[in-house]
């Protein structure tokens, strides 16, 4: 339905067919989209052979929106079968789309996965799951998923987050707010650039939540070479530990992000690409159907080699014992 004011990049039919065919061939050769060195090898080879036309659409995010919607791919609603009841039971559901996501991610950088999340898979299934309605994770539904940087607790977090839509009958929007559209005075920026509070692992990382080390304090805002960037996850930030001045600045940032937030309701086939250094994303509340027709997204996370958008101090963080697995690590 509506993608609000999000910039759209429209793949022509030939480019969409090229991606579908490449993914289909990889799936036929591998028999599954489950991660293996063989599968990743095929993806890397195929991504390297993508046409310039496809590649042009996958150039870096190039506006202050900090995101774009890639349109033109298609999903066969009957062919993908019912929406899985949870990520854990998704298996090979929509497998060819997992591989499309990997091809896109590989054309933009290096896909990453987490040992502690969704069994180390490189493409996650985001579906509402019974019993998780109230959580601050992708499996929730009844609550607003508050705006956050993806995997904000970790120094190895993605530079780009990709959300590919399989099904969204109720037009449930992802929200996105760019730090480049926010108005904050210099004093607030200075306060929020101090390493004052930690960002704790979110509920998708049970193991990291049990980590024994002491949580590092991190800045929320940071001036990188190309402008202001943010690392923000209020649901996992112990704000009560900060003084009133810090809290007030944090709340002004929150209010500004809400003011500039856009709602992006993805249609099947559309892929939202979010710059995780510029944009916080979330999701509006909704009522899960739990009948096989629920909203269903595929998610991939991408590191962009050589990108210098992170404070150098992050290199010393322990990451709560979690390791980001790079698809093409040497
Ligand atoms: O469901 C959505 O639109 C976004 C969920 C989310 O935050 C995520 O998948 O990282
Ligand atoms: Fe998220």
TrEMBL record:
The keyword Oxidoreductase applies. Coiled coil: none annotated. SUPFAM superfamilies: Clavaminate synthase-like. It comes from the Bacteria. Residues 235-300 form the TauD/TfdA-like domain. Keywords: Iron, Metal-binding, Oxidoreductase. Belongs to the clavaminate synthase family. This is L-asparagine oxygenase. It comes from Streptomyces hiroshimensis. The gene is asnO.
């Amino acid at each position: 339905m509506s993608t609000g004011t999000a910039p759209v990049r429209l793949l022509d039919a030939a480019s969409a067919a090229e991606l579908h065919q490449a993914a289909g061939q990889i799936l036929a050769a591998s028999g599954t989209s489950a991660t293996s060195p063989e599968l990743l090898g095929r993806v890397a080879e195929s991504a390297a052979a993508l046409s310039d036309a496809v590649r042009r659409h996958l150039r870096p995010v190039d506006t202050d929106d900090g995101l774009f919607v890639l349109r033109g791919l298609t999903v066969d609603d009957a062919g993908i079968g019912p929406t899985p009841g949870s990520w854990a039971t998704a298996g090979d559901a929509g497998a060819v789309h997992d591989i499309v996501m990997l091809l896109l991610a590989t054309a933009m950088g290096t896909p990453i996965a987490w040992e502690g999340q969704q069994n180390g898979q490189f493409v996650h299934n985001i579906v509402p799951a019974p019993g998780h309605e109230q959580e601050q994770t992708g499996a929730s539904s009844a609550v607003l998923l508050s705006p956050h940087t993806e995997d904000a607790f970790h120094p190895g977090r993605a530079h780009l987050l990709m959300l590919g839509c399989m099904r969204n009958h109720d037009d449930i929007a992802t929200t996105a707010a760019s730090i480049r559209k926010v108005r904050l005075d210099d004093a607030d920026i200075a306060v929020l650039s101090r390493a004052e509070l930690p960002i704790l692992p979110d509920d998708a990382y049970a193991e990291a939540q049990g980590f024994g080390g002491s949580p590092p304090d991190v800045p929320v805002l940071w001036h990188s070479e190309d402008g202001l960037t943010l690392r923000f996850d209020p649901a996992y930030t112990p704000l009560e530990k900060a003084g009133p001045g810090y809290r007030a600045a944090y709340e002004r940032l929150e209010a500004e992000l809400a003011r500039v937030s856009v709602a992006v309701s993805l249609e099947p086939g559309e892929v939202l690409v979010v710059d995780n250094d510029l944009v916080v994303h979330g999701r509006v509340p909704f009522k899960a159907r739990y009948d096989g027709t629920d909203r269903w997204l595929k998610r991939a996370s991408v590191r962009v080699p050589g990108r210098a958008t992170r404070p150098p101090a992050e290199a010393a963080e322990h990451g709560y014992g979690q390791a980001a697995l790079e698809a093409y690590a040497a």
